[in-house]
Amino acid sequence: MKFLVCISNVPDTTTKITFTPDNKEFNKAGVQFVINPWDEYALTRAIELKEAAGSGTVTVLNVGEADTEPNIRKALAIGADDAIRVNAAPQDAYFVAEQIAAIAKEGAYDVILMGKESIDYNGFQVHGMVGEMLGIPTVAPAMKLDMSGNTATLEREIEGGKEIVSVNTPFVASCQQPMCEPRIPNMRGIMTARTKPLKVVEPVGEPARTKVAEFALPPKKQGVKLIDAENAGELIKLLRNEAKVI
Amino acid sequence: MSVLVVVECADGEVKKSSLEVASYGAEVAAMLGTTATAIAVGEATTANLATLGEQGISKVLYDAEPRLKDFVNNAYTKLIATAAEQEQAKIIILANSNIGAAVGSRLSVRLKASLATNVVELPKTTDGQFMVRRGAFSGKAFSDVLLSGDRKIIAVKKNSTGAKHQAGKTAEVVTFAAQLTDADFADAPTQVVMQDQAGGILLPEADLVVSGGRGMKGPENWGLIEDLAKALGAATACSKPVSDVDWRPHHEHVGQTGITVSPNLYIACGISGAIQHLAGVNSSKVIVVINKDPEAPFFKAADYGIVGDVFDVLPKLTAAVKALG
Q1: What's the complex ipTM?
Q2: Neighboring chain B residues of A121 at a CB cutoff of 8 Å
Q3: Superfamily for domain range B2-185
Q4: What pTM was computed for the model?
Q5: Electron transfer flavoprotein alpha/beta-subunit N-terminal domain spans which residues (chain A) (predicted)?
Q6: How close B101 comes to chain A (CA, Å)?
Q7: How high is the mean pLDDT in each 10-residue block of chain B (325 residues)?
Q8: Using a CB-CB distance cutoff of 8 angstroms, which residues of chain A are in contact with residue B251?
Q9: Which of residues 135-164 of B touch A (CB under 8 A)?
Q10: CATH number attached to the domain at B203-324
């Protein structure tokens, strides 16, 4: 079984988000970048399934410029076998999906996994685009993934419940908790990651279809109105008469 | 040229989040000087679909194929794509739900459309440009995105622009047959398991949310959260540490790596307000924080606050809600 795991390089979840003075770009100064937390479920589950089968390969794919390589090496340290970096800034979901689809097709991957969405762009789009470009099923978002031969059984989250879906390879799934416990690299993994193959390829396809014109931050709160704990019931009156939300 | 709105239905009724999507679609249609047609997915009755007229929808297409009752990604994509071609729809509007995002992303490739998800405002069309504001950085920011091309798909985040009601207007419900085949249902679910909803309200659809953190001290104390939620008619939620230790199921986890909610009221009980949690709730209209630590960072993001012990405060709040009648 050939697994292709797509990872994106995102600001750490504790990052305070700021932009350049013209609000055109995210301000990367002093920001720690990590593997997108949702992608960690995809990566770990692919490694677990490969280990359970006793054969197969896990290839990690990132669309990004050279500064994403530390996190690609981290994915290799966690247990991926090799890596491909498409040498381009991820312009939009469509552009990224084109790169993934091209590589998935060329490498004849059986299972294409990624996180539900990236925590910076929050598109929740790439999985469906890749599936449609390749003409194969997509299961999104998947909470559970088991393989038996060429058949996968997945749990897909829907509002208010879940669906059990069975698909044959090749397919695309976007992953989320509680699929697995994401792994962290151990010392041996870090050592071996240095010599694992990392191939850099140039982007293909059509230009992006969307473009960010400007970023904005949410409006600041006016300040908290404190209610004495002894008169907690007063809060309910305020919520009804002042805030008018109940 | 028209606007096509995808409305999700369940148990015969249009989902509340889809009423908002229908209103959004009608407003976009009015901006562009055209009409809004809806395509219904899921299980719906003709009578309930006709009420979409109240949201400004003129016509509703409905394919009564029984296998469309449950979400099937390929079949839904083909159904909506066929409707979009028939109606010559230039703009397609969906809910930013698990269904809407899964279908919208496939549709964007099939229909060669540009796509924006997580959209929070009506589009702006100036100087021949088409721009939408969407949530980014997991609730920490917004981005204004330009959509190119002839066809555009927009997935609208819940509780962003609100549902409008014009009583008495009805939509024409038209039978629609997308000629779906067995192959379109190849990825149909073998089983659908719904959460126990006995008296409960689903978090993604909720207008009011009561949420608990580690300050609740253990799952055995969740009755206090549930009592207040029940009295208010609210859904229950929790912080990441709480779902990590399995006090509550993960689908209740609100935050940057859980679900992002935007209710009218979010009451946080014993949650300190880590930046990842705030990202998941900061588009709530009103935030109430109850915490015994006056230095808890959540108070800075709150509209109302009580510095006190949740175990004292929650029963008082529940009693006060019941006293409202």
Answers
A1: 0.94
A2: 136
A3: HUPs (3.40.50.620)
A4: 0.94
A5: 23-210
A6: 6
A7: 94 93 97 96 96 97 94 96 97 96 96 97 92 93 96 95 92 96 92 73 89 97 96 95 94 90 96 94 94 96 97 97 89
A8: 157
A9: 135-149
A10: 3.40.50.1220
